[in-house]
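On to my pick:
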Amino acid sequence: MAQAPSLVLANVSNGMEINSEGIEKLLGNVPKESKKAVVEILKKTRVVNLTWRVDRYISQFDKNFSGLAFVYDRHTTTRLAVNEYEPMLLKDVIWREAIKLAEGSSYLCHDDHSIRKEFRQDGEPERMNALAHVNVFFDRKGQLLPVQDGKLGLDRYQSLIYIDYDALPPQTRYIDITLLKGVPSKL
């Protein structure tokens, strides 16, 4: 059997925007100076359900494929999660993260270009995105998932969710998918 290519494009501009509508009610007694930071985080966040994209990739390779898929996130301000793709739950998750980050956002070295020594080498302007990096710093960058008959073996309410905390302006993002055959997808 031919080896599967392992690159799939995930365009964050096709994701659900997590906006700041109703944020004042949610924020409640958060210090006033951090509210602006929370809204800025929310404006930059996009969420994409990758499940159907990964399923399509797998089935195009082999509609009967069973084994494991390792899905790897190739960007430093994004996160992969397996959970329910329900808009209100996703807003709760993003708002919680934004509030938590905003509480400690008064100064971040990564965004202080007067002291930073390393900058982008591709000619693009440096982004003020330290909060996005901090938010995903300790996350796993990949998910090992079962595959059965060419589709991810997720439960009824599970989806593979991609969260981009630095999505403005929209950028092209990539994930790698590596299929492992001969490994039981169910134990």
In short: The radius of gyration is 18 Å.
